[in-house]
Amino acid sequence: xxxxxxxxxxxxxxxxxxxxxxxxxxxxxxxxxxxxxxxxxxxxxxxxxxxxxxxxxxxxxxxxxxxxxxxxxxxxxxxxxxxxxxxxxxxxxxxxxxxxxxxxxxxxxxxxxxxxxxxxxxxxxxxxxxxxxxxxxxxxxxxxxxxxxxxxxxxxxxxxxxxxxxxxxxxxxxxxxxxxxxxxxxxxxxxxxxxxxxxxxxxxxxxxxxxxxxxxxxxxxxxxxxxxxxxxxxxxxxxxxxxxxxxxxxxxxxxxxxxxxxxxxxxxxxxxxxxxxxxxxxxxxxxxxxxxxxxxxxxxxxxxxxxxxxxxxxxxxxxxxxxxxxxxxxxxxxxxxxxxxxxxxxxxxxxxxxxxxxxxxxxxxxxxxxxxxxxxxxxxxxxxxxxxxxxxxxxxxxxxxxxxxxxxxxxxxxxxxxxxxxxxxxxxxxxxxxxxxxxxxxx
Length: 443
Description:
Elements: E1 2-6, H1 8-17, E2 27-32, E3 35-37, E4 43-50, E5 62-70, E6 77-82, E7 88-93, E8 100-107, E9 123-125, E10 142-150, E11 158-168, E12 183-185, E13 192-195, E14 202-211, E15 217-222, E16 227-230, E17 238-247, E18 258-261, E19 274-277, E20 282-286, E21 295-302, E22 310-314, E23 318-323, E24 329-338, E25 341-342, E26 349-352, E27 370-372, E28 379-383, E29 389-396, E30 401-406, E31 412-414, E32 421-429, E33 434-441
Parallel strand pairs: 8-9
Antiparallel strand pairs: 1-2, 2-11, 3-11, 4-10, 5-8, 5-11, 6-7, 6-10, 12-13, 13-16, 14-15, 14-17, 17-18, 19-20, 20-23, 21-22, 21-24, 24-25, 24-26, 27-28, 28-31, 29-30, 29-32, 32-33
């Protein structure tokens, strides 16, 4: 493909009217090399890629098609041209005789039928159908085709030496307009959503934002997107942002500037941890709720001894632990998940469990209940390991009694209507001793 910028119509007028000085329009010419015209093929098509992007209409589009063809019988075939959307015009169809077309052009501006001339038909002629059909209001960008098809029962081979598509640029090319309706919403202390109306003819967007008087930070946004969440902003700070469009041939100007201020961040380090241990040695641990926190991470363990932390992920600001050891010290800490990420751990709180009041209230250390599968989805199986159990009670992580079974104890519990989360199963024996096991439901 060869592309030329020229004033072909001025040159043509010069040849026939001794260089008239009137300017009728600038042309861009896209040329193809052509190739063999095979008689056995239904049609022979030749491509040329147009890389200029402009609106095709009657004033600004394909002006003419020119061909150089060697063929024994030019009355045996037709020629059509089609745009990237396969809208086609039949520019020639079996209307001339001879064996050659030499710089033979077809244009709606001509009033001369090709049948009024003789081979090699050098000049500009009226097309068989209106050429302006291909100027359909769409973009010129893409693959265009010139096709030769045979209209006689016994065709023979020939050759398309070359062809030209001549485009008129009398009207402006497609503009690359700056995005409009610049909006900021979903503002928090560290987050904001920036959005705008889609611009036409866009390949991507360039977005920039900054604190007032600061350096610009930039993001690239795909053409199909018209918003972007910006995270990691500073609370209680004023920002401004702009966006521009990247088009096929140029960039737009920057949009109008939008200003916004982040809120004062209220999600922070967890404070005011408390722990209350009941007679069953279950500890209820709670802390101040963080209004913007999506979840919390809590960990606890024996104080002053080795071993790993027990870590739990929660959406509420309290939890009931498993049964702890009596007369022991425990330490616990919590952190919050805010819009900007996890906070640091809270100050570690240490609490004490009470001593065992009486032997028959001691926590059973042996014959532990087996719960499986754990985590569970739709049911749990219980291996009770003892004939001395009299009651099973299940609590949620918030200490709410969810289910209770007495005397006749199940070996399987269905969980279809239960909520996801952490649960505690308390098993009591005939001698009033008990044990507690935890399990998770994930459906």
